[in-house]
Amino acid sequence: MAVTTSSFLTSPSLPSLDTVTDTLVSHYLVTFFVSVAVGYVVYQRVFAPLAGVPGPFWASLGKGWLIVRARKGDLHRELIRLHEVHGALVRVGPKELSIADLDGIKLIYGAGSQFHKSAWYSVLKGHRTFDPFAERDPHIHSAQKKLVIRPYAMETLKDLEPYVDSTVYHFISRMKEKMTLGEVDLGKWFQLFAFDVIGEITFSKRFGFMDAEEDDGSLKSVESTLASASWLGHVPWVFWTHDYLRPWIGNWLGVTNRTGSLMQRALKEVEERKKRGTDRNDFLEKFFRLQREKPDQVTDTAVISMAAANITAGSDTTAISLRSIIYHLLRNPQHLETLRQEIDTARRENRLSDPVTMEEAERMPFLQACIMEGLRIHPSIGGLLPRDVPRSGCVIAGRFIPEGHVVGTSAWVINRNTSIYGHDAAEFNPSRWIKGNKAEMQRYFLTFGGANRMCFGKNIAFMEMTKMVPTFLRHFDVQLTYPERPLKEKNFFFVIQEGLIVNLRERGDEQSNGGAEKEVY
């Protein structure tokens, strides 16, 4: 039978050589990348130094798990859950562990520790040359700390107590005005108060936020900085790539506020202060005095940097702590009643000023216990406080961890350790600080960081808390407006609460000075 031309034209044609080549290359590439991916997964899960350490599956393969948790703002709660399930060690990254082992915590954060701050902090530091908080080099940190630590000592801070008094009483006066209008967002007012105190003790003037009943954008700048840094710290190369490309693409990262708008705010305040002068011995005056003593070491940049640090950290830590103390007292009326009795007894015995002085507050054991418990149950810092494993490696909870890895501990995890704080460690119970082993509890108390890198502003926060809490409760009966609603939490390095809405009533046994504001000139 003859083959026609039409049947030949319609018969299947053979693929071209180029098509065959492209198909084979595609198959080989797919096979190659799949093999690499499978090999990577097998390595991380079976052969890597941290293989076998329990934790989320995706955390073992990359930084994505940490980034997601940081952006969601719930890392602190997730770490508590994971350690309850898995124990002392939890793998949170291919080369990163969360630690809840007590001996390991002493090794990492104790005096003389060889575990230095990880690259996470490089994002917060940026190009700042003077930054004792974020500085990773231990020798530079030590030198910077020695230069500026003196103004933050408690004995030195007592010079500033009268100016904190005036701001506390201004807060009380504003609350007396607001309570007649119905519910009060006490959490917001604590934030405004904390900012105004920082202005008063750093620049000899309040920022005026309590008068305006809002801030000037500073709070948004601080929160934007921390929200951005909380996830960028896990992938610092993203920050530095953005930094390199910034002249062409502009600024897309909130963390730059720390070296941008907040530094500019501090610079503006410093320049204004130089012009107007002051007779107060505030933080700026203390920094200027240090600068006069050591002009080659305490530069203008250092002064501005420390002033900006007061704004960034000093306001949030105090506001968070005040919210925690008052909220948990309101949720536990038996402890609130015990504290009220201590306050009222001291007042009747004429052992209480208005506002309460630090010296008087230090002689009130249950007040001090309530403050410590509020700080324990809701630490202001919710991150892992990551540290690089030293060159020789380390052994924690029986596991060898080599150099090149990162270990860290969350205060939210360790502050709920039942072997330290008792079987009710998840509950608010100030009595543990009176009846329990206080020295042992303080040894592992990481609310203000580890011993070798303790937060400079710790004493500022304590001064404000020890004065505000008893003075506020002396003046007002307080009730939660919505007791069925828990506070909302956002963990962007600082665990910030929302929703502390209360109703206030002036106490009938009030013995204040008639509501007249106590100002300091």
Automatic annotation (TrEMBL):
Keywords in alphabetical order: Heme, Iron, Metal-binding
What GO molecular function terms would the record report? heme binding; iron ion binding; monooxygenase activity; oxidoreductase activity, acting on paired donors, with incorporation or reduction of molecular oxygen
Q: Which Pfam families match?
A: p450
Q: Where does heme bind?
A: C455
InterPro entries, alphabetically? Cyt_P450 (IPR001128), Cyt_P450_E_grp-I (IPR002401), Cyt_P450_sf (IPR036396), Cytochrome_P450_monoxygenase (IPR050121)
Cofactor(s) for this protein?
A: heme
Q: Which Gene3D superfamilies match?
A: Cytochrome P450
Which family is it part of?
A: Belongs to the cytochrome P450 family.
- What this protein is called in its record is Cytochrome P450 family protein
